[in-house]
Amino acid sequence: MFLRILSLIIKELLASARDPQTRWVVLFSPPFLLVIYAFAITQEISSVRLGVYTQDRGAEARALISRFEGSPTFEDIIYLRSDSEIPAAIDARSVDLVLRIGPDFSRTLERGEHATVQLILDGRASNAAQILAGYSGRIVQDFNEETAAALGIPPLTKLVTRVWYNPNLDPLWSAVPALFAVLTAIVGFMVSALSIARERELGTFEQLLVSPLRPTEILIGKAVPALLIGLASATAMLILGWLVLDVPLRGSLILLYASMVVYLAAIIGIGLFISSLAATQQQAIIGLFIYMMPAVLLSGYATPVANMPDWLQVLSETNPIMHFIVI
C-alpha cells in the first residue's frame, strides 16, 4: 500500500516539475506576487494635495496651516480664495481634501475658548477619506495640546496610542502576513485543482482508475504532492518576507508549520473537489477563480469580517483563508 502511494506521489511531483505552467505558478509566481502586492496594496497614503481656505490671518491660523505644510503626507498645498472654489476643486480632483478655517479662529483661541475648523473630504474615495481624516485629526490634536500649553490651559484629554504587534505602523508588517495566507492558498488550489483535470485531459485518469490503487490511495497520492509543493512555496515566501522585506518572524515556527499543514489540507480538499468536477484544466481554473474571489473577500483580508452581515459572518467561518489570516 505504502509503496503504491509513494509511487503515485513521485509521479505527481515529476508531472508538476515537467509542466512549465506549474513550475511558474509554484516557483516564481508567489514570491514575485508577494513583493508586488506588498508595496502596491497598502493603506498608507502619500503625495496628498491639500486645499486651504482660510478667512483668518492670525498667528494661530498660520501655525495650524504650517503644521499641515510640514507634514510629509501632504505634498502640494493649494490656497483657495472663496467658498465657491471648494466644490469645484473637490469635483475636479485638484485636491484630495480641503482645510477651511473661519474668520474668528485665532481670536477664539486667544480668549481660551473652543474653536472649530472644517475638514472637507472627497467621499468618492471613502477609504482614502477615512485615512486622511485620521492623519488630519492627529495634526489638529497635537496643535490643540501645544496651544493649550502656551495659553496656560490644561488640555481636557490627551490620547496616548500604543499599537501592538506593529508599533511603527509599518504597512508591510500587516500586508505581508495576509498576502502570505492568500498566496499560499492560491498555490494549494492551483496544484490540486489541475491534478485530476490534467489526468483527464491527457487520458491517463482512466488508467489510474483501473490500476491496483484504491480510491483512498489515489486521494492521498494526489493530496500529498500538493501539500509538499504548497509547503515549499510557503517556505520561499516566508524567507523572502523575513530577509528581504524585513518583516519580523515571531512566535513558534513549529506551530506555524503545523497550522499550515492543516490549512493546506483544507485548501487541497477544496481544490481536488473542483478538479473532480472539471473535464479540462481550463474548466478547473475557471472553477478555481469562481471560488477564490468570494473566498478572499470573505477572509477579512480587505474588510473586517465583523463588519459583514450576520449571515455572511457565518458563511465566513467555513473559509479556511479567514482562519489562517488570524494565525
UniProtKB/TrEMBL annotation:
Cellular component per GO, a single term: plasma membrane
Pfam family, one: ABC2_membrane_3
InterPro entries the record matches: ABC-2_transporter_component, ABC2_TM
UniProt keyword Membrane present: yes
Compartments (UniProt record): Cell membrane
An MF annotation (GO) of this entry: ABC-type transporter activity
Domain of life of the organism encoding this protein: Bacteria
Keywords from the UniProt entry: Cell membrane, Membrane, Transmembrane, Transmembrane helix
UniProt membrane topology term: Multi-pass membrane protein
Transmembrane regions: 21-40, 172-197, 218-242, 254-277, 284-302
Main location: membrane
Domain ABC-2 type transporter transmembrane: 25-326
Protein name: ABC-2 type transporter
Organism lineage: Bacteria, Pseudomonadati, Pseudomonadota, Alphaproteobacteria, Hyphomonadales
